[in-house]
Amino acid sequence: MYFEGVAKLDKKTKNLVRRLGIGDIAVIDHPDLDRVSAEALVESKVEVVLNAAQSISGRYPNLGPLILCSAGVYLIDNAGADIFKKIKEGDKITVQGEEIFRDGECVGKGEILTTLSIRSKMEKAEENLSDELESFAINTLSYIQKEKDWIIKSMELPDISTNFAGRHALIVIRGYDYREDLRMLRSYIREYKPVLIGVDGGADALIEAGYRPDMIIGDMDSVSDKALLSGAEMVVHAYVDGRAPGLERLKKLGLSPKTFKAPGTSEDLALLLVYEKRAELIVVVGSHAHLIEFLDKGRAGMASTFLVRLKVGSKLIDAKGVNKLYRSTAKMSELMIILASALVVVVALVLASPIVKSALRLVVLALRTRLGI
Questions:
Q1: Which pLDDT belongs to residue 330?
Q2: pLDDT digits (tens, 9 = 90+) for 270-326
Q3: Which pLDDT belongs to residue 91?
Q4: How far apart are CA 370 and CA 290, in angstroms?
Q5: Are strands 258-261 and 215-218 parallel, antiparallel or unpaired?
Q6: Weakly modelled stretches of the chain, pLDDT under 50
Q7: E strand intervals along the chain
Q8: Are the beta carbons of 257 and 238 closer than 8 angstroms?
Q9: Spatial separation of the C-alpha atoms in residues 44 and 42, rounded to whole Å
Q10: Going by C-beta distance under 8 Å and a sequence separation of 6 or more, which residues neighbour residue 361?
Q11: Phi, psi (5° rounding) for residue 38?
């Protein structure tokens, strides 16, 4: 295989996909490429991805590499960390087989991954999953002991203006199946008008679906300026040590965000905030549901997530559950009656028109003449 293109590099795949387009060659450093990142790469329309790391290490059966190859993306794996020193942003490079060239010089070499080779690696990775699960559980239990106080005891909440009391809250994370889930929830959103919260890039997901977020919560590292300037209320995730990485970016945009200091993920903070602000129901889109998804996020455990869900569980429901439980108030039989009634009215109005009556007489007369009646 032979490809030519412009190199685009970033060690954070979620940042790189914003700059990619047709004709580019993506250079990433992403061990155990996750599903969400792979889907974003496919959507960028790149034909070639060079990964400095192992796209599937065998630690667990991650789906990212299979998604890329199944979409026809040429994937060169484990090209080595030096590839970031030998190639610069904007360089014109050539990929020939498993070798990478710049200005005719071979600057790197990796392993070509195919659907067949990836499936073989995934089968071997399945064998390690029980060990990963055990390690994951041990880490979770050890951190629960350390993190329990911030969830059990009362916490200092930001002074927000968005009102959640007695309303539904829809929290969107740009995770698995978020687009499909948002489409399924259109009727629910139209009828219940929930408060719309985007967790980092989830704000862009809401905008793409045609909505404006009421609030954006997170580190603010994977959300666009367009979303940040949409008029939503901003809550920046501040860590226990006081660091709030997203604060400076928002201030440069002329925004005045609130901060929420707590351990855990931004998703955890969003759930806690709307729960403590007395939302009636919390619906989550794109959240993490099982072990593979947590491993994809690179988390050693799920202590904060476990504790948060333990607290808010009585009000929490996944988007897929809403789709199954929620139905439009009108039944099919009722809709058919309404349709039939409307049709009767239309026919009556048409027949009452003098013009229509004359036209019908002409049609009847023409038919009788043609048939000799």
A1: 47
A2: 999 999 999 999 999 988 666 666 676 666 556 677 778 878 888 888 876 665 655
A3: 94
A4: 73
A5: unpaired
A6: 328-330
A7: 2-10, 24-28, 48-51, 74-77, 92-96, 99-102, 105-109, 111-113, 168-173, 195-199, 215-218, 233-238, 258-261, 281-285, 316-318
A8: no
A9: 5
A10: none
A11: -65, -40
Which among 37, 319, 26 is positioned nearest to 201, based on CA atoms?
37
User: Residue 273 corresponds to which tokens in the numbers above?
Assistant: 């905030």
Per-residue tokens: 32: 């155990």
Order of strands across the sheet with 316-318? 258-261, 233-238, 215-218, 195-199, 168-173, 281-285, 316-318
Q: Distance (Å, rounded) from C-alpha 138 to C-alpha 274?
A: 30
Helix (H) or strand (E) holding 187: helix 186-192
Q: How far apart are CA 80 and CA 192, in angstroms?
A: 51
Q: What whole-number distance in Å separates Cα of residue 266 and Cα of residue 255?
A: 19
Reading the block at residue 211, the tokens are: 């909505």
φ, ψ for residue 346, nearest 5 deg: -60, -45
